[in-house]
UniProtKB/TrEMBL annotation:
Ranges for domain TF-B3: 76-171
Biased composition (Basic and acidic residues): 8-19
Primary subcellular site in the record, as a coarse category: nucleus
Electron transport found in the keyword field: no
Region annotated Disordered, chain positions: 1-35, 41-60
SMART domains cross-referenced by the UniProt entry: B3
SUPFAM superfamilies the UniProt entry points to: DNA-binding pseudobarrel domain (SSF101936)
The protein, known as: TF-B3 domain-containing protein
KW Transferase (keyword) present: no
Length: 193
C-alpha cells in the first residue's frame, strides 16, 4: 500500500487546514483550540445551570401553592365574620402579627391558589388592617362568614409584605353547626375530636 501523502500532496494539505479551522476536532496537534473549546463548554454549563435555576424557581413557586402545611413560624389565623366578608369588608389584624409588621402603609401581596392579590396594609393607625383591596380577595375566592383563613408571613419589609393564604371552608355538618351556635363561646369552647 502506498503512502497517501506521496500520492496526492493536496490531500495532506486539506487535512492540515481542517485542523486549523475554529470548528475542527480538537487534539494534541491543535493546542490553540483548547481556549475556544473551554469557553464554549463553560458557556454551555452556565446556560444549563441558569436553565435549571429558572426551572427550580418555577417549581418552587408551584410547590409553594401546592403545599398545604405551614412552612413559616410567623402566621395568624382568622375565622371570618360578617364584617370581614360583607358590607364594610374590614379585616383588622391581631396584635401578635401587628408586632411583626411595619408601622406604616405598605403594599401587600396575598397569594392563594397560584394567584396574587395586591392590596395595602395600613399599619400606622389605631386598628391596623388591610385596605379595601381585601374586598377583591374575598369576592374572588367566594369567602363566607365561618370560613377560616391562615395568613403565613413569607416576606416582611418596610417596602413589601407577602402572605401565603390557606383557606379552610366553614361548611360544618348540621350537628356541629348547631352545637357551635348554641354552646360555643370563648369561655366555653366546643371540643371536636
Amino acid at each position: 500500500m502506498s503512502d497517501p501523502s506521496q500520492a496526492d500532496p493536496r490531500r495532506v494539505t486539506v487535512k492540515k487546514e481542517a485542523f486549523s479551522r475554529p470548528y475542527a476536532h480538537v487534539n494534541e496537534e491543535t493546542p490553540r483550540m483548547e481556549p475556544l473549546l473551554q469557553q464554549s463548554v463553560e458557556r454551555g454549563v452556565r446556560d444549563q445551570q441558569n436553565s435549571k435555576l429558572a426551572e427550580k424557581s418555577e417549581a418552587a413557586e408551584s410547590d409553594e401553592d401546592s403545599i398545604r402545611y405551614l412552612t413559616s413560624e410567623t402566621f395568624f389565623d382568622m375565622v371570618l365574620a360578617k364584617s370581614h366578608v360583607q358590607q364594610s369588608f374590614q379585616l383588622q389584624l391581631p396584635a401578635r402579627i401587628v408586632r411583626e409588621l411595619p408601622k406604616a402603609t405598605v403594599p401587600v401581596v396575598l397569594r392563594y391558589n397560584c394567584k396574587n392579590w395586591n392590596l395595602s396594609y395600613i399599619g400606622n393607625c389605631k386598628a391596623p388592617r388591610f385596605d379595601t383591596g381585601w374586598r377583591n380577595f374575598v369576592n374572588d375566592n367566594n369567602l363566607k362568614s365561618g370560613d377560616a383563613c391562615v395568613f403565613e408571613l413569607k416576606e416582611c419589609s418596610p417596602e413589601n409584605i407577602r402572605f401565603k393564604v390557606h383557606i379552610l371552608r366553614g361548611d360544618l355538618p348540621p350537628e356541629l353547626a348547631t352545637a357551635v351556635e348554641t354552646h360555643g363561646t370563648k369561655d366555653n369552647p366546643i371540643d371536636v375530636d
